[in-house]
Design goal:
The complex is a heterodimer of chains A (723) and B (155).
Chain A (H helix, E strand, L loop, with lengths): L1 H29 L5 H20 L3 H18 L7 H22 L6 H15 L3 H7 L9 H10 L11 E9 L1 H5 L4 H9 L2 E8 L17 E8 L3 H7 L7 E9 L6 H12 L1 H4 L13 H12 L3 H13 L10 H27 L7 H24 E3 L1 H18 L3 E6 L4 E3 H22 L3 H6 L6 E10 L2 E8 L6 H10 L11 H6 L22 H10 L3 E7 L3 E9 L4 E9 L2 E6 L3 E5 L6 E4 L3 E6 L2 E7 H4 L13 E6 L5 E6 L1 E9 L13 E6 L5 E5 L1 H7 L2 H13 L1
Parallel strand pairs in A: 6-8, 13-22, 17-19
Antiparallel strand pairs in A: 1-3, 1-4, 2-3, 5-7, 8-9, 9-11, 10-11, 12-13, 12-20, 14-18, 15-16, 16-17, 18-19, 21-22
Chain B lengths: L1 H5 L5 E9 L2 E6 L3 E6 L13 E7 L2 E7 H4 L12 E7 L2 E7 L1 E9 L12 H6 E7 L2 E6 L1 H11 L2
Parallel strand pairs in B: 2-10, 5-7
Antiparallel strand pairs in B: 1-2, 1-8, 3-6, 4-5, 6-7, 9-10
Classes of the chains: A alpha+beta (723), B alpha+beta (155).
Chain lengths: 723, 155
């Protein structure tokens, strides 16, 4: 039972991968990249899901996958062209397939109303009468009529072929123990084989040892099968697809038929020649002047006889790269990361002790220590890399959201993605799914206009949502942008006033108005639709991004669209920081926020208002925040002239000056959660452990700056109440 | 046999007793993970005064609750003779700063008397019951009652 559950779990993990493969393939086809490799990959994905589902008796899934597979097969062999309508149905079918897999994984049955209509659509596609296929496929692939083609074969002395010719194959099949170890079963394979035709099976039990020497997990039987079938070798091999490499298999055609399987050959030839040239074989070109076409067919047909073997080899090559990866339980990686984190801290402590012991800088101990430090850092980076994952899977999920929301809102939208290969920590990827989904829903629900409005504004009726990921100075930048109407600032302002988020007479810049949408309690839509609303506002998006150590900003241009920019750390485990001290406390300031550090001169610091101070830097004035005072470590501000200023840049490119007593060091620190055993502390992002073994707090620069400004402080207050 | 049958009906519990000032308290020993000496804590900003800060417990960031301050007793600056009781409270691990750990008591459930009805808020909130042992009174602290709530409400 347990083993079965594990295998099933593996199956569903593989399903995830296959579904991702399927989706990316279909999207590529939708963009017009329907090369045979892509089409084959798509077909294989559905085929594998069907195969696995059959083994677990997931009947709904098998039933749907089978029909879907047929459609894809039709595309593969060139009977259907990957025209937009057909790709649309295929994409929808892929969504349904994903739902069915999800339902099966949770041990539920998907409501038939959700998948039967799509099933019927697919069935309609795959069952269209031959004569209509050309039309259904957008008139690209004209299917041939078999009759005249056969007549042409007569002309070149090929014997008239009956519909399907029988051949006799001798198959030697000897499973290895791995085959059983991977939960395959010979009898099921033989049974599958029996479906292909008439067969006689002889079992070779000569390898069977005496009972005493019998290994319960061993594989001792081999079978010789005589199969009379109309199928070709490739189809027989397909039966053994999942046990390839786990058995010795040879397939020989002992009695070649007097005539070739013409229908199958022609189909394959057409697929090879591509859809447009296939029309050359259509009935209208029957005139003797075109006699060259059938001849060419035959030539390719002969050439293609050695294809099955080549195809099997190709299949092996394609499988090979995936075997270079291993599946590891996530908690094992996490444990390793924690241990390496400890190692880094320990190494730092050791360094400090050795420095304290007063060794000369050139001494062997210090040199060895430097090497150790480098090694530790390398180990740490390698371990972090294990957790890194391309954002591709995340982006792919979004294309489905785009389709669904566009359908539900009657808008036309397409998703363009860039930088899918960018890698981030798996946890970040996972926790990004919800905010990103929300942003995409928002972009379509609120951002994009209806096709009519767009046409009136002289825009293409189909809106574009762009999703991009780029690496920039140790962080990953994810952007969601739309080419819609942009933020309606007058309305946002009005709502903010009505909700009491800002004072009526408040003077706000455009950017400040745009940022109002991130305030808790702000929602421009009166009734929460289940499209962009879902009961959560942009404040939740912002909060989840902040919780990931990220930042989010919005830039909007009326009539042209909005862009949300998220800057995220590559990992949640380490951070480059500047170690500073203030009021006897040691703090870490994240390096990403720091622009420069300086010592203020007398005359640089000016008082403004009752208790605020600003610092003059190269002609401009920036707010000066005494960190020790802001955190409540001291009541009176420090003397700026004996302190150090750290100039920081927060979201929205606002600059602020932080006043600390001294800068101690700049280093990479391991991030430790404060929430695990305590709770979130305002102005503090997390904790870390320094070389002396003491805990130091990592400053949340954005929160600190935000709190020192009136308007957002109020928002924070509401945060606390809501949380 | 009959004697043995009656014994298990009284659930016996093990309690760890400790001292704060002149008063004695105890907690269920099941919650206690370890006991360690006082090390200076890193102060947390915007925190209630009974939270002394955080310390490093083998790579884990451990918040330290000054139990004296929490219970409204006289507060003293901790010295190296003070003790931290590392306790599991729900899913969190918390360090409790106390003066000294005194002993381990094995008592039966019925020895825990209801908290006498006094005016002290502290007693009503944090003391689950009292035990009379050798003419001493030991208050049983309800860890799971007071700690998670106070830590979260402290915002």
């Amino acid at each position: 039972m347990d083993t079965m559950a594990t295998i099933k779990q593996t199956f569903f993990q593989e399903c995830e991968e296959q579904l991702a493969e399927l989706e990316s393939g279909l999207l590529a086809m939708n963009e017009g990249f329907a090369d045979p490799e892509t089409v084959n990959a798509v077909f294989r994905a559905v085929h594998s899901i069907k195969g696995g589902a059959g083994a677990f008796r997931l009947d709904d899934l098998v039933r749907f996958a089978h029909i879907f597979e047929t459609v894809l097969d039709q595309i593969r062999i060139g009977h259907l062209a990957p025209a937009p309508e057909i790709m649309k149905i295929s994409l929808r079918a892929a969504d349904v397939l994903a739902d069915l897999v999800a339902a099966a994984r949770d041990g539920e049955r998907l409501d038939e109303a959700k998948w039967l209509p799509v099933l019927e659509e697919c069935r309609a596609l795959s069952d269209i009468p031959e004569s209509e296929r050309g039309d259904a496929a957008g008139g690209i692939a004209a299917a041939p009529d078999f009759q005249p083609v056969r007549a042409n074969f007569d002309d070149i002395d090929a014997p008239a072929a009956p519909d399907r010719a029988q051949r006799i194959f001798t198959i030697h099949f000897k499973p290895k123990r791995e085959l059983y170890g991977n939960a395959n079963e010979s009898v099921l394979l033989l049974r599958e084989l029996a479906r292909l035709g008439r067969m006689t099976v002889a079992c070779d039990a000569t390898a069977l040892p005496l009972l005493g020497e019998l290994d319960a997990d061993g594989a001792y039987f081999a079978w010789t099968i005589e199969l009379a079938t109309t199928r070709d070798e490739a189809e027989i091999r397909e039966v053994f697809e999942f046990v390839e490499g786990d058995c010795e298999l040879s397939i020989d055609c002992v009695a070649a038929p007097p005539q070739q399987d013409v229908a199958a050959l022609i189909r394959r030839v057409q697929a090879e020649m591509g859809a447009p040239s296939a029309s050359a074989a259509s009935p209208s070109h029957q005139a003797p002047a075109n006699a060259g076409a059938p001849l060419r067919l035959v030539a390719s047909a002969e050439a293609s006889q050695d294809r099955p073997a080549a195809k099997a080899d190709a299949a092996k090559d394609e499988i090979a790269p995936s075997s270079a990866t291993i599946r590891v339980a996530f908690d094992r990686v996490d444990r390793l990361i924690n241990l390496v984190g400890e190692l880094v801290i320990n190494q730092a402590m050791l360094s400090q002790r050795i420095v304290e012991a007063g060794f000369a800088s050139g001494s062997a101990v210090i040199v060895g220590l430097d090497e150790l430090q480098q090694l530790t850092r390398e180990i740490q980076e390698s371990v972090m890399a294990i957790r890194a994952q391309p954002v591709k899977s995340l982006f792919q999920r979004m294309s489905r959201i785009v389709r669904e929301v566009a359908d539900a809102t009657g808008k036309s939208a397409r998703l363009k993605t860039e930088g899918e290969a960018a890698e981030i920590d798996k946890t970040v990827v996972e926790r990004l799914a919800d905010p990103l989904t929300h942003l995409i829903r928002n972009a379509i629900g609120h951002g994009l206009e209806t096709p009519q409005q767009r046409a009136a504004r002289g825009k293409p009726p189909e809106g574009t949502v762009r999703l991009s990921a780029t690496h920039r100075s140790g962080r990953v930048i994810i952007e969601v942008s739309d080419d819609g109407g942009g933020i309606d600032r007058a309305r946002v302002r009005e709502v903010a006033i009505r909700r009491g988020l800002i004072a009526e007479e408040a003077q706000l810049t455009d950017s400040e108005i745009d940022n109002l949408i991130f305030l808790p309690g702000f929602s421009t839509v009166a009734t929460l639709s289940n499209i962009s609303g879902r009961g959560v506002g942009m404040d939740v998006v912002k909060r989840s991004i902040l919780a990931l150590g990220g930042r989010i900003a919005i830039v909007s241009e009326p009539g042209k669209g909005s862009t949300f920019t998220m800057s995220l750390p590559l990992t949640l485990a380490v951070l480059d920081g500047m170690v500073v001290s203030t009021s006897g406390q040691t703090l870490v300031v994240p390096l990403t926020a720091i622009v420069e550090t300086l010592r203020p001169r007398s005359g640089d610091v000016h008082a403004l208002g009752m208790d605020a101070q600003v610092l003059a830097i190269r002609g401009s004035f920036v707010p000066l925040i005494d960190v020790g005072q802001a955190l409540g470590f001291r009541s009176a501000p420090a003397d700026p002239l004996t302190s150090v200023v750290i100039l920081i840049e927060t979201e929205g490119r606002a600059r602020n000056a932080l006043l600390v007593d001294a800068i101690q060091d700049q280093r990479q620190v391991v991030i430790k959660s404060l929430e695990a055993n305590y709770r979130h502390v305002p102005d503090i992002a997390a904790a870390t452990i320094l070389g002396d073994g003491r805990v130091a707090l990592i400053l949340d620069v954005d929160a600190l700056v935000a709190r020192s400004r009136g308007i957002v402080a109020q928002a924070d207050l509401q945060f606390a109440e809501a949380g | 046999m009959s004697e043995m049958n009656t014994a298990p009906t009284l659930n016996s519990v093990e309690l760890m007793a400790f001292r704060i000032g002149s008063q004695e308290f105890c907690v269920d020993i099941v919650s206690v993970r370890e006991i360690r000496g006082w090390t200076p804590a890193t102060a947390l900003p915007h925190s209630p005064d009974f939270v002394r800060g955080v310390i490093n417990l083998r790579g884990v960031v451990l918040p330290i609750v000054d139990l004296a301050a929490r219970l409204g007793l006289a507060c003293v600056e901790p010295t190296s003779r003070h003790v931290i009781i590392v306790a599991q409270v729900g899913k969190q691990v918390v360090g409790l700063l106390v003066d000294a750990v005194s002993e381990i008591l094995t008592v039966s459930d019925d020895m825990v008397q209801p908290t006498p009805d006094v005016a002290s808020e502290m007693a009503k909130t944090f003391v689950r019951g009292v035990l009379a042992i050798n003419e001493r009174m030991i208050s049983l602290i309800a860890l799971d009652e007071i700690l998670p709530k106070t830590l979260r409400d402290a915002a």
